[in-house]
Specification:
The chain has a five-stranded parallel sheet with strand order 2-1-3-4-5, sandwiched between helices. The protein has one domain: 3-Layer(aba) Sandwich (Rossmann fold), CATH 3.40.50. Helices cover 35% and strands 14% of the residues. It is built from four helices and five strands. The protein starts with a strand and ends in an 11-residue tail after the last strand. By secondary structure, the protein is of the alpha/beta class. Pfam families: DUF5615 (PF18480). This is DUF5615 family PIN-like protein.
């Protein structure tokens, strides 16, 4: 797994705990931990940190994050990506999505993009 996740401070801490338990090879950090942005850091500064340290931001901020990403790109900055958790999925399903994405993604696959979970869809398979 080459993707690294930075969990926004408003994401339930159980995500960090469960991701670390279920995918120990996945690098997962949370805002407020040592060597990460401190709690209360503004979103544009978090995006700069993610760019510098090559972390994908995982957040539940659907409202202002598109604006921040647009501003970031306008300044000729680049971010590895932003994943927005689905409020309609359980924590467990969101975690499964994050692990599947990390296991099956290429470097820079999500650069300068906002990805809304879920990426996978379970439905009828018709042959």
């Amino acid at each position: 797994m080459t993707l690294k996740y930075l969990m926004d401070e408003n994401v339930d801490p159980v995500y960090v705990t469960q991701l670390r338990q279920q995918a120990p090879d996945l690098v997962v950090r949370a805002v407020g931990e040592p060597a990460t942005p401190s709690t209360g850091t503004k979103d544009p500064e978090i995006l700069l940190w993610c760019e510098e340290y090559e972390f994908i931001l995982v957040t539940n901020n659907r409202r202002s994050m598109p604006v921040h990403l647009t501003e970031n790109i306008a300044q000729n900055r680049h971010i590895p990506g932003i994943f927005i958790l689905s409020p309609s999925l359980s924590i467990g399903k969101n975690i499964e999505e994050l692990i599947l994405i990390a296991q099956g993604s290429f470097d820079d696959e999500y650069q300068d993009q906002i990805v809304f979970l879920p990426l996978t869809q379970v439905g009828d398979v018709r042959l």
